[in-house]
């Protein structure tokens, strides 16, 4: 297991040089390897000086360079929220093209149950535009749609700060804990117990160090997002852990049960939690998921259905380069409605790949991605009344007797 990120939540007005001692100490303090130190800022439309493309680009470069000098590996600029002028969406391509360490997001549904169909269609067009920034479509790694996502989650790109005093949280890369827990078990009950114990032991070790850092630097510790994030090798695959429970392959009947079973074990574990703290099923970041997608046995709809019982949503999903904006919008709306009805945070990081069609091989020169194939995006998406609706209030599912 690794610590994927120590994420510091802070306002841009805090001097970067005040962050340097904390980040330097945090990188060396933990018993687990620390992959990166990251900074999550408040929603950028609230503090960027202008939404004009040239101004956005120039200011983004400034933020990138200043924070890199302060020892920050990656910066999340926060979301364009539903209450922000939609013109801010047009700033997203300029941000993403300005640097390789800036992430940005946009809300399609908020934590209060407001869902914006028209905003999903606007964002779909932006996703298509961002896919052309690089020849291989890599730009959408830095852009994600948010649905019902509050501030304070340490995983990128969803991370953003609510404002006010700084705090920090930990994101872990821990799919190997689930795989080991299952492989060493003779029953579901034993697998669950093993996983709970592994999570609690690791969380206790991390929390003890984090609390010491909090006391030393006067920066509150917000908790651990113990989502079982993978790494693209079979020994660190969450898809492999789910299959080890007895699935013939992820995507087969029983996969939703397996996803729910592991997520329920995470829910039982006792630790100071934040963010998703569920399953993370990013297609290109997980070697087994990437293979099953390439084999055509794992679909976008499969992943969406698992999101109902686990976490995160759709992540690093390789899609045809010529996918229609309406189809992208339809996928975003499915995520938004699922999140709104269940009142759970979900995201969609969709990656149309220029020049590629469904079934074509996908290979990035990027150590955190596995080889896969473009997934089928299905039929053309919605139009008509769905596309015209600006804002809807969605009631959560309530229990009826």
CATH topology: Anaerobic Ribonucleotide-triphosphate Reductase Large Chain
Segments where pLDDT lies below 50 for 5+ residues? none
> Any idea what the shape is?
globular
Helix fraction?
A: 25-40%
Question: How is this structure best described in words?
Answer:
This protein has 401 residues and is an alpha/beta fold. It has one domain (1-401): Anaerobic Ribonucleotide-triphosphate Reductase Large Chain. Helices cover 37% and strands 17% of the residues. It is built from 12 helices and 13 strands. The protein has helices at residues 20-29, 53-69, 92-98, 117-130, 175-183, 188-217, 238-244, 255-268, 287-295, 300-306, 325-342, 384-388, and strands at residues 2-9, 37-40, 74-80, 102-109, 114-115, 143-147, 167-173, 221-225, 312-320, 346-353, 361-362, 372-373, 392-393. The strands form 3 sheets. Strands 8-7-1-2-3-4-6-10-9 form a 9-stranded mixed beta sheet. Helix 5 (175-183) runs parallel beside helix 7 (238-244). The longest helix is centred in the middle third of the chain and has 30 residues, at 188-217.
């Amino acid at each position: 297991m690794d610590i994927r990120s120590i994420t510091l939540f802070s306002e841009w007005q805090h001097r970067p040089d005040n962050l340097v001692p904390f980040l330097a100490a945090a990188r060396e303090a933990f018993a687990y390897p620390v992959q990166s130190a990251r900074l999550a800022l408040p929603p950028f439309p609230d503090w960027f000086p202008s939404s004009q493309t040239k101004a956005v680009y120039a200011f983004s470069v400034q933020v990138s360079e200043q924070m890199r000098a302060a020892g920050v590996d990656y910066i999340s600029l926060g979301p364009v929220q539903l209450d922000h002028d939609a013109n801010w969406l047009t700033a997203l391509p300029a941000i993403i093209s300005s640097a390789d360490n800036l992430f940005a997001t946009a809300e399609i549904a908020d934590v209060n149950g407001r869902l914006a169909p028209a905003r999903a269609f606007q964002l779909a067009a932006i996703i298509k535009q961002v896919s052309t920034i690089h020849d291989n479509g890599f730009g959408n790694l830095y852009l994600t749609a948010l649905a019902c996502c509050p501030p304070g989650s340490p995983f990128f790109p969803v991370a953003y700060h609510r404002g006010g005093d700084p705090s920090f949280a930990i994101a872990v890369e821990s799919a190997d804990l689930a795989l080991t827990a299952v492989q060493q078990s003779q029953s579901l009950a034993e697998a669950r117990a093993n996983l709970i114990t592994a999570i609690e032991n690791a969380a206790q070790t991390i929390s003890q160090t984090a609390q010491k850092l909090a006391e030393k630097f006067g920066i509150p510790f917000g908790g651990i997002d113990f989502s079982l994030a993978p790494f693209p090798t079979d020994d660190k695959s969450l898809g492999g852990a789910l299959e080890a429970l007895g699935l013939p392959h992820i995507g087969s009947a029983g996969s939703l049960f397996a996803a729910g079973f592991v997520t329920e074990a995470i829910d039982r574990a006792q630790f100071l939690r934040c963010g998703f703290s569920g399953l993370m099923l990013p297609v290109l970041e997980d070697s087994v998921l990437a293979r099953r997608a390439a084999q055509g046995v794992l679909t976008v709809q499969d992943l969406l259905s698992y999101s109902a019982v686990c976490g995160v949503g759709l992540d690093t999903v390789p899609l045809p380069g010529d996918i229609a904006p309406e189809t992208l919008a339809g996928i975003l709306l499915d995520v938004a409605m699922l999140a709104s009805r269940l009142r759970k945070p979900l995201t969609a990081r969709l990656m149309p790949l220029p020049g590629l069609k469904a079934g074509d091989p996908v290979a990035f020169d990027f150590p955190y991605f596995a080889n896969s194939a473009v997934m089928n995006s299905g039929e053309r998406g919605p139009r008509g009344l769905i596309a015209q609706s600006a804002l809807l209030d969605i009631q959560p599912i309530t229990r009826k007797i």
